[in-house]
Write a structure and sequence with these properties.
single chain; about 190 residues; mainly beta; 11-stranded antiparallel sheet; two-stranded antiparallel ribbon; signal
Length: about 190
């Protein structure tokens, strides 16, 4: 009985002094890297054909809190992504930006088998097969863009279907090249 009493008192003290941690969720200022939500349509053209990809999935970590006991290093997970429907030619775009401890950085898929992972703040990739180039302002196909990344894969040693893509803030993937069909696809700016 005495042990139960000490246990209950200890439990009461422990829960009374438990720390409450608040996590802010996904940073609104980073939404420029995941610019679409459910219901929006992305159109791409290769000058002879046009495809439409509808955004069918979207997620953004909301602010949350939790209680813990003297946690020294609190890691607040934050993620936002969108994914589109699949076109007849297999294109299905998914852009995922997170700072989760196990899934850090920007992940972009243009087909189910073409995966690009890179880090926006450091403008780099952990994979040797992926090259990252950043341009603050640039002109592409007659349009001015800000904060542009050109992400390319090693095609000398690998044979990816998508060899490169260009991503711009607030617009996502604005261009990509399909090595299999030898076609360059550009986002239709309306």
């Amino acid at each position: 009985m005495k042990q139960l009493k000490y246990f209950l008192i200890s439990l009461l003290i422990l829960t009374s002094f438990a720390c409450k941690y608040k996590c802010p969720g996904f940073d609104e200022s980073e939404m420029k890297w995941v610019p679409y939500s459910i219901g929006e349509t992305l159109k791409y053209t290769n000058k002879s054909d046009t495809i439409e990809l509808s955004v069918v999935d979207y997620y953004m970590t909301e602010p949350y809190s939790f209680r813990g006991v003297l946690i020294m290093d609190v890691w607040c997970e934050a993620e936002s992504y969108y994914s589109t429907s699949q076109a007849d030619n297999g294109y299905e775009i998914r852009e995922d930006y997170s700072d989760n401890s196990d899934n850090w950085g920007m992940n972009v898929n243009i087909t189910k088998s073409d995966f690009f992972k890179f880090h926006i703040p450091s403008q780099s990739s952990l994979a040797d097969s992926i090259k990252v180039a950043y341009m603050q302002d640039t002109l592409i196909n007659g349009f001015q863009y800000s904060e542009v990344f050109v992400i390319s894969k090693d095609t000398a040693n690998l044979s990816p279907r998508i060899s490169y893509f260009i991503k711009a803030a607030d617009l996502g993937v604005i261009e990509f090249y399909d090595r299999k069909s030898q076609q360059k696809w550009n986002l239709v700016n309306e």
